[in-house]
Amino acid sequence: MRTGIIKRKTKETDISLELNIDGKGISEINTGCGFLDHMLTLFASHGLFDLNVSCKGDCEVDYHHTSEDIGIALGQAFLQAMGDKKGIARYGDKLLPMDEALILSAVDISGRGMLVYDLSIPTEKVGDFDTELVKEFFIAFANNANITLHLRSICGENSHHIIEGAFKSVARSLAFALAFDERRAGQLPSTKGVL
């Protein structure tokens, strides 16, 4: 089993996170932000990742530190769980419809953290969640997982649908990229010999 356990404590957040890449999509999420709980639950389910997240953050200020720090911890957990990366497919992508929204994500388990972000989210908030925090979450996640992540909305009008489609699409892209290819057993999927 490929697992990662991260404990991260700052003056702004206190996070415990457990991840099993080879799971069944079972999750227990408590971030203090209902919308983020919903997105991470969907992420776990659609990637078939077992994920437990507990965060005590400065939500009385806003959800910025909570969102960013959970992105950091989740990225670190994926990096830990990936291990030596031998035998993985490396690349994954998913074009995902969510009602009127259509979201494209593509992942390279490259060893280089990078986010290319082109989500057009029409509102500033979904409930009490600032939609600009979606980008902050995925920047932190990609940089700490050492992956290249492209995320784009092809179309969409409903902010909730666009964001939900993004989390689902990224989860499925990651699941494809992290799946084992029996033809690559024991080999890194790189001509450089390093990821």
Task: Describe, in plain words, how this protein is organized in 3D.
The chain is of the alpha+beta class. It is 34% helix and 31% strand. The protein is built from four helices and ten strands. The chain has helices at 34-47, 64-82, 133-145, 159-178, and strands at residues 3-9, 13-20, 27-30, 50-57, 91-98, 101-108, 114-118, 125-126, 129-130, 148-155. The strands form three sheets. It has a four-stranded mixed sheet with strand order 1-2-4-3, with helices on one face. Helix 1 (34-47) runs parallel beside helix 4 and helix 2 runs parallel beside helix 3. It starts with a strand and ends in a 17-residue tail after the last helix.
